[in-house]
Specification:
The complex is a heterodimer. By secondary structure, chain A is an all-beta fold. Helix content of chain A is about 0%, strand content about 50%. In chain A, strands 2, 4, 5, 6, 9, 10 and 11 form a 7-stranded mixed beta sheet that branches. Helices cover about 0% and strands about 60% of the residues of chain B. In chain B, the strands form 2 sheets. In chain B, strands 2, 4, 5, 9, 10 and 11 form a 6-stranded mixed beta sheet that branches. The termini of chain B are far apart. Classes of the chains: A mainly beta, B mainly beta. At the A-B interface, β5 and β10 of A face β5, β9 and β10 of B.
């Protein structure tokens, strides 16, 4: 069974530029999560999708971050414009139905904002 | 608001030692607690999951305990090996969400 796929693996941009990350969850998983992990900290949930609907985006900085999951499968997370403090690893995870079940994590995208 | 804390932030031990990693949480109303391993440049790998009704779980050289009343969990690693070097994260599941501690970076020296 293929795991959660993410791309790109690494990205370096200048502040005020835009960037987008892509995630393909495990086939059949209804729930998809995006986490932000700043160096030395644990992952923090940014947004949770159930199929193509948003369940929780309370910690997503909506003035600069946006995410979509149009067909209930792949998802894209965008930052526009990026700030220095956005430098982090962005992790995508998926689970079967989101009701307390196991989350499976992708390898992450490491973003550096200069 | 649930807060998860892990102590120590970093730990270095010689190969062969038994060691304990600590995790504490402020709200005991959790669904379960999980321990993850994170290698540099990699995602998170689930090691052990303890349901809120359980006291411990074991997998090979790993044993995790849970004491909900005191808000504590420990991860015991027996006979540590250099391949165990990684960051270990604990997370509680509450309201359908994973809430993570900041991790303990473990280094096992040959």
């Amino acid at each position: 069974e293929a795991g959660v796929a993410q791309s790109p693996r690494y990205k370096i941009i200048e502040k005020r530029q835009s960037v987008a990350f892509w995630c393909n969850p495990i086939s059949g998983h209804a729930t998809l999560y995006w986490y932000q992990q700043i160096l030395g900290q644990g992952p923090k949930l940014l947004i949770q999708f159930q199929n193509n609907g948003v369940v929780d985006d309370s910690q997503l900085p909506k003035d600069r971050f946006s995410a979509e999951r149009l067909k209930g499968v792949d998802s894209t997370l965008k930052i526009q414009p990026a700030k220095l403090e956005d430098s982090a690893v962005y992790l995508c995870a998926s689970s079967l139905d989101g009701t307390e079940d196991t989350q499976y994590f992708g390898p992450g995208t490491r973003l550096t904002v200069l | 608001k649930q807060e998860v804390t892990q102590i120590p932030a970093a730990l270095s031990v010689p190969e062969g030692e038994n060691l304990v990693l600590n995790c504490s949480f402020t709200d005991s109303a959790i669904y379960n607690l999980q321990w993850f391993r994170q290698d540099p440049g990699k995602g998170l790998t689930s090691l052990l999951l303890i349901q809120s009704s359980q006291r411990e779980q074991t997998s090979g050289r790993l044993n995790a305990s849970l004491d909900k009343s005191s808000g504590r969990s420990t991860l015991y690693i027996a006979a540590s090996q250099p391949g165990d070097s990684a960051t270990y994260l604990c997370a509680v599941v509450q309201g359908g969400k994973l809430i993570f501690g900041q991790g303990t970076e473990l280094s096992v020296k040959p």
